Amino acid sequence: MKVLILGIDGYIGFPLALRLIDQGHEVYGADNFYTRKRSRKVNADSAIKIDSMNERIKKTGNKIKFYYGDVSNPKFIYDLIKNTMPDAIVHLGEQRSAPYSMISLDTANETLIKNIKSTMNIIYAVKDIKKDIHIVKLGSMGEYGTPNIDIPEGFFNIEYHGRSDYLPFPRMGQSWYHMSKVHDSYNLMLANKIWGLNISDVMQGVVYGTRTGEINKYNLNTRFDIDEIYGTVLNRFASQAILGIPLTVYGQGNQKRAFLSLEDSITCLNLILNNPPHNEYRVYNQFDEYYSLNYIAGAVAKNYKSLTGTDIEISHVDDPRIESQDHYYNPANENLKKIGYRRQRSLDDEIPVILSDLENNKKRLIKLKDSIMPKTKWNK
Ligand code: USQ
Asked: Which intervals hold domain NAD-dependent epimerase/dehydratase (predicted)?
């Protein structure tokens, strides 16, 4: 398969590229290093050192063909698709931080406009150049919000005033970032309806971990963010444990979120690539299990204690976000299981590995300490 990965320099993009080259696929990638730049802009950095893209490519034996550019630029996307003519495009090239999108009007607009534009560029370029390309688009479980009913995969049967229909499940993003993904989903749905494009829209949960089989094999790290803007919750808790500071559970900690390991995330994307839809808009809820934030904090503290014998304090800081603190949560994830997904790495498999990788990077962690406490508030 010829696969074009947009956002190949990112946390998920790079390990996905390694998995695909390892399986013998032809891999093309594009990035404009926005995450590296934006992360420096908020005085943060990857807690685990990563190589430059040139170094990365060299270490894979030049198996990745890389294009530098911005996915929100239509000309760049049209040229890229014409030059590579891929079988599949994996779109991971969007601004991916909810807190970043909530800093100011500028960052809200930047997130909404660039994210939505990038997906529209892909839709039109695929329609105009090669209509059978499989578009794999990274969305978010956060698109659904936390409704007081079960969450299906994209669509559900509904009865209202005596009539029934099969409709998109309501989407209720809780940040401008999540709203940008909601808009993308509707745009992709429409593109499929009008032009019959082949689309897999992936509602991914919160990813954790430092490693995959190929990261180990090629000895090539992926980025790992721990700051209040780019770090995701479990990765942040693990770094806080290593720094000996209390874990920052936001609010009551009864908020529930869907999670999966980095290894499982890459496996799921790989399964999706191997099972292209035909003229279909297909939604996958991509996660392994859902947990409360208190459970996640407890799992990090428990693993830290069994590795070091030391207790870690769990603190409850004022929630900087506007989110339900205590709610029903029951999302489905049957579609990935139907195409063969089985969990490979559980929380307790992965947390000790993360803690040990972070211990080996403690000097870098100490330098990033000031970026940890939440400063970006939703209702500022
Ligand atoms: N949280 C804490 N303490 C922290 C950081 C976060 O309690 O130190 C809480 C947040 O309040 C939230 C939950 O943990 O309730 C998840 O926050 P997060 O920062 O780990 O994840 P989120 O902002 O939702 O976004 C991340 C990725 C995004 C992806 C999304 C999947 O950055 O790209 O789409 O996870 S999901 O959460 O399912 O929407």
From this structure: 3-285
Q: Which tens digit of pLDDT belongs to each residue from 79-136?
A: 999 999 999 999 999 999 999 999 999 999 999 999 999 999 999 999 999 999 999 9
List Cα–Cα distances, 341 to 217, 287, 361, in angstroms: 22, 10, 32
The complex scores an ipTM of 0.98
Alpha carbon of 159 to ligand 1 centroid (Å): 33
Can you spell out the DSSP letters for 166-205?
EEEPP---SSHHHHHHHHHHHHHHHHHHHH--EEEEEEE-
- What domains are defined for the chain? 2-371 (3.40.50.720)
Cα(179) to centroid of ligand 1, in Å?
14
Q: Answer positive or negative: Cα dihedral of 98, 103, 108, 114.
A: negative
Q: How high is the pLDDT of residue 42? A: 81
Distance 232 CA to ligand 1 centre (A): 5
Q: Determine whether the shortest distance from the Cβ of 232 to ligand 1 is under 6 A.
A: yes
